[in-house]
Design brief:
isomerase, four-stranded antiparallel β-sheet, 2 helices, pyridoxal phosphate binding, alanine racemase activity, 93 residues, alpha+beta, 14% helix, Ala_racemase_C, Lyase, Ornithine Decarboxylase, Chain A, domain 1
């Protein structure tokens, strides 16, 4: 995931991912096909763990509004710019 997939290049460390039950903020700039997050020294995250980029926030994951604020844009831009390489998962509810 990177700006080629629609992740805003100018996003700051107010956004990040949710992995191993914890938030991991962005580190540095978003690149074309990747970005780096700070897992911290005590992280239990391992290869193969599910990583949530954004969600509804109920489990502690970053929300679309937080990503929008970190990229100085609106929430609609965050979701509409996600490219076709990214699989979508639609929860039933």
């Amino acid at each position: 995931m990177g700006y080629a997939d629609g992740i805003p290049r100018n996003t700051n460390n107010s956004a990040g991912v949710f992995v191993a039950g914890k938030r991991a903020p962005l580190l540095g700039r978003v690149s074309m096909d990747q970005f780096v997050v700070d897992l911290g020294l005590q992280s239990t995250a391992k290869t193969g763990d599910e990583v949530v980029i954004f969600g509804d926030g109920s489990a502690g994951e970053y929300t679309i509004d937080e990503w929008a604020s970190a990229a100085s844009t609106i929430n609609y831009e965050i979701v509409t710019r996600i490219g076709p390489r990214v699989p979508r998962i639609y929860p039933r509810g």
